[in-house]
Amino acid sequence: MKPLSLFLRRNLLVLSITGLMGLTTATGATYDQNTLESPSITITNSAPRSGEAIYNQVCTMCHSIGVAGAPKFGNAGDWAPRSAKGYDELLASALRGLNAMPPRGTCSQCSDEEILNAIKYMVEHSK
């Protein structure tokens, strides 16, 4: 019982001090002593990220080596039957997930447009 009590006292002290000072995070969100809730954080970007950026950040994990049957980047044979279906179908498959690929290809923070950009990037570099 004592270790828990000491643990709680230390955390309450830290929370009290940060509440009195006001804590600013790396995102610029501030916490003050008048609220117990986390502030809402809005991430805005004026333009969607490029297909290359999304591919390098997310898609490369599977598409660079063909994990679980994913079409490999740069492999025309892997992409030809898929690209024949058109970008609308490729986007729909990516958004809902297909075979081992989870919905949105694990990029839950990506917009539909960014996912489409990544698809176009992979197709264009796999001809």
Explain this structure.
With 127 residues, the protein is mainly alpha-helical. The model is unreliable at 11-27 and 29-36 (pLDDT under 50). A two-stranded antiparallel sheet has the order 1-2. The longest helix is centred in the N-terminal third of the chain and has 20 residues, at 2-21. It has helices at residues 2-21, 51-63, 76-83, 87-96, 112-124, and strands spanning 23-24, 30-31. It is globular, with a radius of gyration of 22 Å. The chain has two domains: 1-44, no CATH class; 51-124, Cytochrome c-like domain (Cytochrome Bc1 Complex, Chain D, domain 2, Orthogonal Bundle). The N and C termini lie far apart (66 Å). Pfam families: Cytochrome_CBB3 (PF13442). InterPro entries: Cyt_c-like_dom, Cyt_c-like_dom_sf, Cyt_CIE. Residues 1-26 form the signal peptide.
Query: What is the radius of gyration computed over CA atoms, rounded to a whole number of angstroms?
Result: 22 Å
How many individual helices?
Answer: 5
Strand order of the largest sheet: 1-2
Low-confidence stretches: 11-27, 29-36
The amount of beta strand, in percent, is: under 5%
**CATH architecture identity of the largest domain:** Orthogonal Bundle
CATH topology term of the largest domain:
Cytochrome Bc1 Complex, Chain D, domain 2
How much helical structure, as a percent, in the residues? 40-55%
Q: What is the makeup of the main sheet?
A: 2 strands, antiparallel
Look at the structure and give the mean pLDDT: 78
What's the CATH class label of the largest domain?
Mainly Alpha
Name of the CATH superfamily of the largest domain: Cytochrome c-like domain
* Cα distance spanning the termini: 66 Å
Query: How many separate structural domains?
Result: 2
**Annotation, overall tally of beta strands:** 2
The outline comes out as globular
Structural class comes to mainly alpha
How do the helices and strands follow one another from N- to C-terminus?
Answer: HEEHHHH
